């Protein structure tokens, strides 16, 4: 049994929907490979994700919004809290990054990539960035509904990661 850990933070709902889509995609991939019982999918909000969860997993999805050109504070705190606790203990494992953004997302994506390079994780694909077209204060503070086409991109990335984990790639 392998475990896929999906760590997410979301303030207005977009990244949460993206994390859930990645979980659906991973479950579908395990079913398509006829290995539904070989993959455990653990969704954890960033504030509840700890070193034990990281160490118990063989693959990771990190999913959060971009805030002020970097990762949201709760997601950054997750990395700060756990970085040295698992350094040199998770290297070589695969990961994927999902970023929700108003109009950019590249700063947060770069930050996740740098942190995961430090952990020596392997990206299965470039980060998926979903731009919600939120730029005014009212748009940014509003609850978000991620378009289906973007959720499909998140499902596909979750599926790719699960497939690689189950096939031992
Ligand atoms: C304080 C704050 C700062 C933000 N800064 C950025 C930014 O630098 N770049 C960007 O593209 N979006 C920015 N946004 C917009 C959010 O990334 C966007 O609304 C995203 O969809 C939120 O995801 P969530 O619904 O998962 O919380 C910011 C939002 C907030 C609240």
TrEMBL record:
Keywords: Flavoprotein, FMN. Coiled coil: none annotated. Residues 4-162 form the Flavodoxin-like domain. It comes from the Bacteria. GO terms for molecular function: FMN binding; oxidoreductase activity. It holds the Pfam family FMN_red. SUPFAM superfamilies: Flavoproteins. This is Flavodoxin-like domain-containing protein. The lineage of its organism: Bacteria, Pseudomonadati, Pseudomonadota, Betaproteobacteria, Burkholderiales.
